[in-house]
Amino acid sequence: MRGELRLSVPSVMVTQLLAEPISAFMRQHPALTVNVSVSDRQVDLIDSHTDVAIRVANLSDSRYKARFLFNNTAVFLAAPAYLARQGRPVIPDDLAKHHPSSHLCLTYSLMRPSHQWTAYEAATPKNKAIIPVQEVFTSDSAEMLLKMATLGHGIAALPHWMAEPHFASGVLEPVLPEYQAMSLPMHAVFKDDAYQPYRIRAFVDFLVAYFNDNPVRQSF
User: Fold this and answer.
1) Which of 56, 82, 158, 184 is the least buried, fewest Cβ under 10 Å from its Cβ?
2) Which of 74, 47, 45 shows the shortest CA–CA distance to 62?
3) GO biological process: what's one of them (predicted)?
4) Which domains does the chain have, with CATH numbers?
5) SS3 content of the chain, % helix, strand, coil (to 5)
6) How far, in Å, CA of 101 to CA of 112, rounded?
């Protein structure tokens, strides 16, 4: 296989989840050139000449096809020092800005509206609470939110796979562990062309098989 494979991937996933499968695919096809563009915003595959985009969202554009990879499940978390100082939420409403003991929240600006969180019961996901939170810090970088959480600035809602090493080390602790913040499907997205170059079909098939064999942990 020869030619160039052009990818668009989210910054939060590029090294932790996608570097290894991309590396393995390159070893199988050493004559292939891979061009990875890192962006947390959705790109137009046609205008940007992108072959495959990895997107964490529900899809609506009929010009594209998609293959499901895994659900990206977010959990609530905070540093032990923050919880010792501010107290530990017991129910989702404790996060609400109108609550007497409302907590400081670190929000992801690309989720609209960023100041409104949803908490789902892990055991019964249909049961959910919509919470207007007190934003003390917002960013379009999940890595920055993670860092600010470790520094004790508030509660964040981030992917479980991203937070898990910090739970294991004790740098962060789960908050409201019986709830999850959201679960968004992660897809490999490509153009809906009658002729699909083999490099695109092969890479998408490889990614689907990789995540089937290496499932991403979703919960505690």
Assistant:
1) 184
2) 45
3) DNA-templated transcription
4) 3-71+184-213 (3.40.190.10), 72-183 (3.40.190.290)
5) 30, 35, 35
6) 25
